[in-house]
Amino acid sequence: MDRYIITCDIPADTERYDKVLQALSKCGSFTRVTDSTWLVATRLPTRELFLRLRMHTHAQDTLYLLRFDEALEGFGPRRINQWIELTENQPRAANG
Asked: Exposure of 10 by Cβ count < 10 A (0-12 exposed, 13-18 middle, 19+ buried)?
């Protein structure tokens, strides 16, 4: 699986935000870091993942996917640290 940091500036109190969360839940394993940042592990190609999320955004929104291969270092909630550990050694997807 490939792992991504996804950041998006859609306001959390909008329908667009809820639709992005629904799309994320169908893409693989994910955990919320902040209201606008998630960690995602998926077998989807980068472009497909991006398009599945982008379809719920407006022109004034921002959306970035940053793939990471190396182990993360950080400090925060236990659920995030556990997600990182669980996804760290997953086989990588063939990605385009």
From this structure: buried
Alpha carbon distance 32, 6 (integer Å) = 10
19-51 pLDDT tens trace = 999 999 999 999 999 989 999 999 999 999 999
Rounded CA-CA distance 26/13 in Å is 21
Q: How far is CA 43 from its chain centroid?
A: 12
Dihedral (CA of 70, 51, 23, 61) sign: positive
Of 53, 23, 43, 52, nearest in space to 96 by CA: 43
Closest among 71, 81, 10 to 24, alpha carbons compared = 10
Distance CA 44, CA 94 (A): 9
Q: Against a cut of 0.90, is the pTM above it?
A: no
- 93 touches 87 (CB < 8 A): no
Supply 5's token pair: 């940091």
